[in-house]
Amino acid sequence: MLNCKDVAARASALIDGELSGWQAMQMRLHLAMCRGCSAFVGQIRQTRDLTEAALREGTAHPGDDARLAAILARLPDQRRGV
After folding, report:
1. Which one, of 36, 39, 61, lies nearest residue 51 by Cα?
2. Sign of torsion, CA 14 44 73 54?
3. Contact criterion met (CB below 8 Å) for 44 and 14
4. R_g of the chain computed on alpha carbons
5. 14-66 pLDDT, tens digit each
6. Which residues are CB-contacts of 14 (< 8 A; sequence separation ≥ 6)?
7. Where would I find the Putative zinc-finger domain in this sequence (predicted)?
8. How far apart (Å, rounded) are the C-alpha atoms in residues 30 and 67?
9. Which residue has the higher pLDDT, 10 or 66?
10. How far apart are the C-alpha atoms of 18 and 15, rounded to whole Å?
11. Which of left, alpha, beta for 61 (phi over 0: left; psi -120 to 50: alpha)?
12. What is the pLDDT, as a whole number, of residue 69?
């Protein structure tokens, strides 16, 4: 069984569909039982969706594009621990 720290470390990978079936199932089981982690994963998902929408729709403020693109470019590296 995963603990909250494990879920926090793997939240982005779950949202991006990068976990194996077994890993995703373990995450979903924990999220079904833990309100705090469920809320955390929901916030991460919402942040990703809003950031992607702002970049796609061009609704970000002038000058934000470079900062947002840099953040998005680093997300995969952060999940791998780089």
Report:
1. 61
2. positive
3. no
4. 14
5. 999 999 999 999 999 999 999 999 999 999 999 888 878 877 776 666 666 67
6. 23, 24, 27, 41
7. 4-37
8. 33
9. 10
10. 8
11. beta
12. 75
Which DSSP string do the residues of the chain spell out, in sequence order? ---HHHHHHHHHHHHTT-S-HHHHHHHHHHHHH-HHHHHHHHHHHHHHHHHHHHHHHT-SPTTHHHHHHHHHHHHHHHHHT-
Q: Which residue has the tokens 């702002």?
A: 54
Q: Which amino acid is at 9?
A: A
Average the pLDDT over each of 3-7, 9-13, 53-57 and give the range with the smallest value.
53-57
Q: Supply 23's token pair.
A: 């890993």
Give the chain's length: 82
